[in-house]
Design a protein that fits this description.
Layout (H helix, E strand, L loop, with lengths): L4 H15 L2 H7 L4 H16 L5 H8 L1 H27 L2 H8 L2 H13 L5 H19 L6 H24 L5 H16 L3 H4 L8 H25 L5 H8 L1 H13 L8 H30 L1
Helix pairs in contact: 1-12, 1-14, 2-6, 2-12, 3-5, 3-10, 3-12, 5-6, 5-9, 5-10, 6-9, 6-14, 7-8, 7-9, 7-13, 8-15, 9-13, 10-12
Length: about 300
């Protein structure tokens, strides 16, 4: 069966649903953000060795593209470190709602990176998200503002590497791309483990369980599905779907963690405004796509 746009959306939604658990797992794992991400990318890279032939892969991809993908892997590493840093500095719900601003950053970065025209309604969506961000900031304790800033940086980084992947993954095997990017992320983070990785390096028995779920199910599988979906979907449409991650994640955090005790109603009003803006884009995109088809 041909790989269709509908199948790409279904696979991406499955990946995003599984990503909803990553913030929960990150909160449960008792390691620093840097050490946690290092174990995550290392275990994911090792899980892919059986699926790629390293020597043949480098020859077929070419040296230039190999180093381009490795550079994207560095951005992926920085995204995950800042994402889990936001969780440690604030909480899972705040880190997740910051990720909902990815579409705001994508509306600016994707046209610049993939060389397409700016869409006025994407920029309008970004402006509409700003009051939601203000309400989120107003709805938390001042001590969590650093976590919000780090979370927003993480959202900007994910919009950049998604746009870069969209530009460079054409006709490439998703398993190979995942291996190169996360292998590069592992090498990039390794020199920083000793000075910045915190006091604990080895995971506890329960940390190992959480790390294996995080690495194999929520990273290896989801990274493969999300990369493959980009062959049929735009980076903005992909980032928009990824914005469902905070919906799933905040719902899970509300019941599984104690985040609700740390957040005021203002935070949830801001989160609701961001989610409404994100889903409003879907209706706008369908309307203008239908108009372009009829013209």
């Amino acid at each position: 069966m041909a790989y269709s746009e509908k199948r790409a959306y279904l696979e991406l939604h499955l990946a995003v649903f599984l990503w909803g658990f990553t913030a929960i797992l990150g909160d449960l794992i008792q390691l620093s953000a840097l050490t946690l991400v290092w174990w995550r990318v290392l275990l994911t890279s090792l899980s892919l060795i059986l699926f790629v032939r390293i020597g043949k892969m480098i020859r077929e991809i070419g040296r230039r593209r190999f180093f381009l993908l490795a550079g994207i892997g560095v951005i992926v590493a920085l995204h995950w470190v800042t994402f889990y840093g936001a969780i440690k500095l604030a909480n899972a719900s705040i880190a997740l709602i910051c990720m909902a601003t990815t579409s705001l950053f994508s509306s600016v970065f994707e046209p610049l990176i993939v060389k397409r025209p700016f869409n006025w309604y994407e920029l309008l969506l970004g402006v509409f998200i700003l009051p939601g961000i203000w309400l989120v900031v107003d709805g938390v304790e001042s001590g969590m503002n650093v976590g919000i800033a780090v979370g927003l940086l993480s959202a900007a980084l994910v919009s950049i590497f998604t746009s870069l992947n969209k530009k460079y993954i054409q006709s490439s095997n998703p398993a190979r791309i995942t291996f190169i990017e996360l292998g590069a992320a592992t090498l990039f983070l390794t020199p920083f483990l000793y000075p910045l990785g915190g006091d604990r390096f080895w995971p506890s028995p329960m940390d190992w369980v959480y790390l294996l779920v995080l690495s194999l199910l929520c990273t290896t599988l989801t990274f493969f599905l999300s990369l493959r979906s980009l062959s049929k979907l735009s980076a903005f449409a992909s980032n928009l779907t990824v914005n469902l991650e905070p919906v799933y994640g905040i719902f899970l955090a509300y019941f599984l963690l104690n985040d609700a005790d740390e957040l005021s109603p203002t935070f949830y009003w801001g989160a609701l405004l961001i989610v409404v803006a994100v889903f409003g884009y879907t209706a706008m995109e369908r309307y203008y796509r239908r108009r372009r088809t009829l013209v």
